[in-house]
Write a structure and sequence with these properties.
17 helices; Arc Repressor Mutant, subunit A; 13 strands; alpha/beta; six-stranded mixed beta sheet; Rossmann fold; single chain; 391 residues; 17% strand
């Protein structure tokens, strides 16, 4: 099993907070991580997708009161939305007995609904963490091109070959379309949802234009926006907001949308091999999306992420404001001979970031002039992850 970098952070959170809510897409490895924690901490584990385990919580307060002295792990906790109010009382009861931390580990795959439910009932008692798919630092020994083609979901990247990986991703997409997405949103035909998702894949990294999507799908813009929100909520889509401030220039203000996992992006587009990816028009946007997801997966807590673009063409793919690290500007270039474009240099002059990088698929780092450095993705991810540690 590949050791997840988030494991020490989850354990530390359990040592400090009564409840920890671990969020992430389905099949990203939350349950595997939870079982590892259960073995270390002697925890009680309940899978709330199991009718048998849900039945144990018919009287949740009475059942869970037996385990006030043990960690209880509740998987897919959004399946029992009425559970959060009893948890608040149980946490307070455990506190009075001297057990102030490490009571509950909650796992869920729908961010907004869980944040709302837990935030209302467990305010001041819960800490939220997100488990992303495998990234370039966790998969040392696996070629970066394989991680890019297959994405970071464990079953996909660790499959025996590309064909099995693609079949797993196609099944994953089908499950979301036919079962998971309809649970959370108004009913739309699975084929319409697939068309929306495929259109977003073709428009990887493009500014959000709900009216254009709605016209193509024969839907109204409100429905399109509702499903965009849902895909973001389910950790399937990244909404990257524009950086905005008074810099005396006209700024692009629409968010950019990215299918978060590169393997899902390629499955939606029918890309089945690395050669096909390199020949596909989405190759540059796919590389950009992978760079963004890998860096955000390792970024220190509190990091804010934006893109920057002016109407005159000044542009930065990813602008990170890093606690204790200042502002970092990142451009993604899928070229073995990367250059910093004029638009990138103009944006750097506007914003004056502390560090400036062009990420490319090579193995060496070297200066490009003007304080800009060409750097491989794993190297920059390692530097960003290191900022997690206080100076």
């Amino acid at each position: 099993m590949i050791r997840r970098r988030l494991l020490p952070e989850v354990l530390a959170a359990l040592d400090e907070a009564p409840a920890v809510c671990l969020l992430g897409a389905r099949q990203v490895g939350k349950t595997t991580l939870a079982h590892a924690i259960a073995e270390q901490r002697g925890a009680v584990y309940l899978d709330l997708e199991s009718p048998r385990d849900r039945a144990r919580l018919d009287d949740a307060e009475a059942y869970l009161e037996q385990y006030l002295d043990r960690l209880v792990i509740l998987d897919e906790v959004h399946r029992v939305p009425g559970l959060f109010a009893p948890l608040r009382g149980l946490i307070d009861r455990a506190r009075r007995k001297g057990a102030r931390a490490g009571r509950y580990l909650l796992l869920g795959s729908a961010a907004l609904s869980l944040l709302r439910q837990a935030g209302e009932s467990l305010a001041g008692r819960v800490r939220f963490l997100e488990l992303a798919p495998f990234d370039a630092l966790e998969t040392v020994g696996i070629p970066l091109d394989r991680l890019w083609l297959r994405g970071g979901f464990p079953e996909s990247v660790l499959a025996d070959n590309d064909e099995r990986s693609l079949r797993w991703r196609e099944d994953f997409i089908r499950t979301y379309l036919e079962r998971d997405i309809p649970q959370f949103g108004p009913r739309l035909p699975a084929e319409t949802l697939r068309r929306l998702w495929v259109m977003l894949a073709h428009r990887q990294g493009a500014p959000h234009n709900a009216a254009e999507l709605a016209r193509s799908l024969g839907l109204d813009t409100r429905t399109v926006n509702r499903y965009i929100d849902l895909l973001v909520d389910l950790f399937l889509l990244r909404r990257l907001l524009p950086w905005h401030a008074n810099v005396g220039k006209r700024l692009v203000k629409s968010p950019r949308l990215y299918v978060r996992d590169s393997g899902l992006l390629h499955a939606l587009l029918g890309i089945d091999a690395f050669d096909a990816l390199l020949a596909h028009p989405v190759v540059g946007a796919s590389w950009e999306g992978m760079v963004i997801e890998n860096l955000l997966a390792v970024a220190p807590a509190g990091t804010t992420a934006h893109y920057y673009r002016t109407s005159g063409g000044a542009e930065i793919d990813l602008l990170l404001d890093v606690p204790r690290g200042g502002r970092w500007a990142v451009e993604a270039k899928r070229s073995s001979a990367p250059v910093a474009t004029r638009g990138f240099h103009e944006a750097l002059a506007d914003l004056q970031p502390r560090r400036k990088f062009v990420i490319y698929p090579g193995e060496e780092r070297f200066p490009l002039g003007g304080g800009v450095e060409a750097i491989p993705l794993p190297a920059l991810a390692g530097e960003l992850a290191a900022v997690r540690k206080p100076a």
